[in-house]
# Entry
Amino acid sequence: MALEHTKWGILFCPKGSSANTRKYRSRLEDMLKTNNVEYDLVQSESESSVERLVKMFIDNSYKTIVIVGGDSALNDAVNCLMDCPSELRDTISLGVIPNGVLNDFSKFWGLKEGDVSFSIQTLLGHRVRKIDLGCMHYADKEGEGHKRYFINCINIGLIADMMNLRRQTRSLLGSRTLSFLVSALLLIFHRMEYKMRLKINGDLIDRKVMNVCIGSGPGYGQTPNAVPYNGMVDVSLVVPTELLQLLEGFWLLFTGRFLNHRGVRPYRARKVEVIKASQALVGVDGRLVGRLSGECEITVEQEVINFIIPR
# Structure
């Protein structure tokens, strides 16, 4: 790929059927040409290829990198950018055209899936805001330290379990909607409590917990007041409830009133320490990353990514 400074490097992350993917990509490219956008577009083959392709754009000196995808693809992109020296990262702007299963971070900025024209106009306007990233510091089973950045949220417990069940049922059923409904029903027979020990703002919390959401963004409705530019994360800790209260919680989540639920304990912090989480599953920006095998620490790195937002 030739060295470029003015072209957009566009990473297209497909979803749905091959026929729908071809139709969407063709429509997208027609709109880019109509707006006289110079670009090079590559398509990801799988989730694991996103970071490799973003790195290719960086290595070839693209200064505007656009992700056509959802929160998980954006997560891979920002983690790739955070591997770069800050001097190089400061010269690169990241943009998004929402096209994912979850587009929570895009929605926060007023970018909607399906409104490709508005997303392209936003990118052409090139209004850049430096945004914060959450960062999870953790160790693997061998004790080796790792860092994983997030733009939206980390879920520890029930929601990550639901992601795992949904992924498994979708591989069997194919349909996203059907797999969501089946996985939600399976949760009734699934473990819903985890013994956790957390430290938030110096307060030690040692109790059974259903889910912890730590958000630098809206957290799929669980941290609706979090913003990616105040140097802090919002935390929603969900304590065990009865089944009817759990169903009420899902209703409040889908209607944007999650913090009103009696089982939710909200916090705002600069650092969260997870001392123990009983081998709970962890999801980062909608993607399952596995189980915690030890302690982890969540902090915020301020104003580290140039993100293109609407005017």
Q: What stands out?
A: The mean pLDDT is 87. The chain is about 30% helix and 35% strand. The first helix runs from residue 18 to 34. Residues 158 and 211 are 5 Å apart (CA to CA).
